[in-house]
DNA sequence: AAGTCGAGCAACCGCGTTTAC
DNA sequence: GGTAAACGCGGTTGCTCGACT
């Protein structure tokens, strides 16, 4: 079945938007709100598909868009978030008010990747360029069965270095915490253990205008209060709270986890147990 | 001045997920 | 529960514009 069949029913415009089209879409949404995107073009008098209207609104017309050059701080935040989240642009965008996932994705592909390489960092793994290859070789020879289970981890590619039980045996938990990535690794644990509340949206703007969540209008675990969390991690780091040893999760059950949510639940169970004591210190640190 | 190249950006496409019936 | 439609996301494409030759 052809998707977005509404686009095929009639000759719809494609390509760049004219100022007239922008004006029509903008005034329609400001007046009536989004409602159903598929009906927007008809109601606004546009020969576009709803999908195209949605994209134009989110990436260009939204009144809360910041536009302009990214600051150094924004760039660094994007790099940090990419290290944790991978190419989850909408989730990354949810941490940068006024920025869209498309904008961030473009920045990453055109600029930040290059900058990281110049710093000698692999933009995919965020490891020093020299280490990437040797680590890959080591892990594949050492853990031949890891590949079979790898598909299950691809839901969380950015977490693999932290959570992969084959790469990080339980008897060496310090690997997780004594590196320079201490905060980042711990953040990932907490994020996926449900210890932080990522269910809330970041932008305090009405859903009516279709940008209540991320720039892509959807985010399953918006990392709200990101900055606060990072500050808290700094606090944790400075206060020398003893990080917990990871308790081995029931990895065999992971094979039965049908969705990333199942997997998250599974992680939550084991990580709650692992991080419990640490978390109470962490929460205190937030206030 | 004309041609080429690359960076930056806007928009499209395809697919997975969610929702409505 | 099955199906179709709508939505959302990430990857990719293609256009524009400025720098360079």
Looking at this protein, list some descriptive labels.
disordered C terminus; mainly alpha; 287 residues; elongated; 15 helices; DNA-binding
Written overview of the protein:
This protein has helices at 6-9, 19-32, 40-44, 50-61, 72-85, 89-93, 101-118, 129-142, 146-153, 160-163, 174-177, 182-193, 226-239, 251-254, 260-286. The chain is 55% helix and 0% strand. With 287 residues, the chain is mainly α. The radius of gyration is 22 Å and the shape is elongated. Among the domains are: 16-61, Arc Repressor Mutant, subunit A; 145-286, no CATH class. It is built from 15 helices and no strands. The chain binds a DNA duplex (21 and 21 nucleotides) through helix 4 and helix 7.
């Amino acid at each position: 079945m052809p998707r977005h069949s509404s686009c095929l029913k009639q000759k719809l415009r494609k390509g760049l938007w004219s100022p007239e089209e922008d004006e029509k879409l903008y005034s329609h949404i400001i007046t009536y709100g989004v409602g159903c995107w598929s009906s927007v073009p008809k109601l606004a008098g546009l020969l576009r598909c709803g999908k195209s209207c949605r994209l134009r609104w989110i990436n260009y017309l939204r009144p809360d868009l910041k536009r302009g050059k990214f600051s150094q701080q924004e760039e660094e935040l994007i790099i940090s978030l990419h290290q944790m989240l991978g190419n989850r642009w909408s989730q990354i965008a949810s941490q940068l008010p006024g920025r869209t996932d498309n904008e961030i994705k473009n920045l990453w592909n055109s600029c930040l990747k290059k900058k990281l390489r110049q710093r000698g960092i692999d933009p995919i793994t965020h490891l020093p360029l020299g280490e990437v290859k040797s680590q890959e070789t080591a892990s594949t020879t050492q853990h031949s069965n890891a590949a079979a289970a790898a598909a299950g981890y691809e839901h969380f590619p950015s977490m693999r270095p932290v959570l992969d039980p084959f790469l990080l045996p339980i008897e060496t938990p310090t690997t997780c915490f004594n590196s320079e990535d201490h905060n980042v690794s711990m953040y990932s644990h907490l994020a996926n253990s449900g210890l932080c509340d990522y269910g809330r949206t970041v932008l305090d703007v009405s859903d009516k205008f279709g940008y209540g969540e991320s720039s892509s209008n959807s985010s399953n675990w918006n990392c709200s209060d990101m900055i606060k969390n990072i500050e808290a991690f700094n606090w944790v780091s400075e206060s020398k709270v003893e990080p917990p040893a990871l308790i081995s999760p029931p990895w065999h059950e992971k094979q039965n986890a049908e969705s990333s949510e199942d997997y998250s639940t599974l992680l939550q169970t084991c990580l709650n147990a692992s991080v419990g004591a640490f978390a109470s210190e962490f929460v205190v640190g937030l206030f």
